[in-house]
Amino acid sequence: MILSPNTRKTLKALETPTEKKGKGSTNSIWRQPLAIVGLTIVGVWVFVAVFAPWVAPYDPYSQEFDKFIPPSAEHWMGTDELNRDILSRVIYGARISLPYSILLVVLSAIIGTIVGGVSGFFGGRVDATLMRITDMFFAFPGIILAMAVAAALGPEIRNAVIAITIVAWPVYARLVRGLILNSKSSDYVTASSLLGSSSLRTLFVDLRPNISGPVFVLMALEVGTALLLLSGLSFLGLGATPPSAEWGAMVSMGAVNFDRWWVGLFPGLAILTAVLAFNFIGDTLRDALDPRTAKALRD
Question: Could you tell me which CATH class the domain 85-298 is placed in?
Answer without folding.
Answer: mainly alpha
